Amino acid sequence: VRKQHLVPKAHYGGRHAVTMLPGGGIGPECMGYVRDIFKYIGAPIDFEIVDIDPNVDNDEDVKYAITTIKRNGVCLKGNIETKSEAAYVTSRNVALRNELDMYAYVMHCKSFPGITTRHKDIDIHIVRQNTEGEYAMLEHESVHGVIESMKVVTASNSERVARFAFEFAKKNNRKKVTTIHKANIMKLSDGLFLETSRRIAKEYPDIEHNDMIIDNCCMQLVSKPHQFDVMLMTNLYGSIVSNLVCGLMGGAGLHSGRNYGDHYAVFEPGTRNTGTAIAGKNIANPIAMINASVDMLEHLGHHFHANLIRAAVHKTINEDHIMTPDLGGTASSTDVIKAIIDNIDLYMKNKVSF
Ligand code: ADP
Ligand code: MG
Description:
Layout: E1 16-21, H1 27-41, E2 45-49, H2 60-72, E3 74-77, H3 92-99, E4 104-110, E5 123-129, E6 133-143, E7 146-152, H4 155-171, E8 176-181, H5 189-201, E9 208-213, H6 214-223, E10 230-233, H7 235-248, E11 256-260, E12 265-269, H8 287-299, H9 303-319, H10 333-349
This protein binds adenosine-5'-diphosphate and magnesium ion (MG).
Magnesium ion binds next to loops.
């Protein structure tokens, strides 16, 4: 399959084809809501839906999904389950990111004024290395009872993600990048990541750069989160810190995350939860998946549709206070979707321009 530019050209009629991977747990119901909203507003997207069977040990479905993403350039995904416990069957989510070389993950954590939280007005971008580090998936038993797991940090990927973070800060008018690490203990691996980010920082004199050890970072985040602007870190720290920050702002059901490589982009709920325990009960918070779909529309240049959905979501939560139980509300998932569609209607009737 031919490699393509990060933002694919539209097809005839200005439409884009996008791969949809509903995944397990609450993925399929959340994708249903996205499709309802897109249909209602006539968003110019044709989804190519690929279901991945979590119970089979071969990776035919995943290979097919990757082929469609290479063709479409863009994907909206839930969390794909890997039910097999065999060690040789590795996480499909990780395999997908590695195969598409999506080396950077970005999560924008911005407070919703309508949600009661300990800290207000948080606005943090987390940039995470997305394809190596602790997720190298190279584990073995060297002698009986001794497991070794390799954390792989390369100069090239550290440089790519550092440059991504600084370019991102520059484009989005952010003031500071903080590298998060444990280079005092992991002197070589985290040391390389930190040194590389310091070297790249020199090319961006207008952006402040500092660094912080991961353990202190966790303490600072829960006590003084406003000191952070753009945060740059390796893969596992990124997973933990992004969940921590989501927890500060209302939980797993709100924020979206974006996976980027040089050629492909994949959009998904930020904390990458499956939500198996709450699936099929009409209680899952649909906002994270809807926000992921808004990111996807924006990436493809469909700004009107993106802004319309975003405004309707914000009004539903911040003004109408229609929320699912995870945010302290009493609404069902479908109540939230109905409120969003009513707000979309209101904007369209009043001819609000976006
Ligand atoms: P993981 O897949 O990482 O094990 P879970 O799927 O168990 O995580 O989710 C972690 C927690 O977040 C659970 O308590 C789950 O109910 C909650 N959660 C995840 N997604 C949502 C959502 N969209 N709405 C409400 N709660 C959610
Ligand atoms: Mg789970």
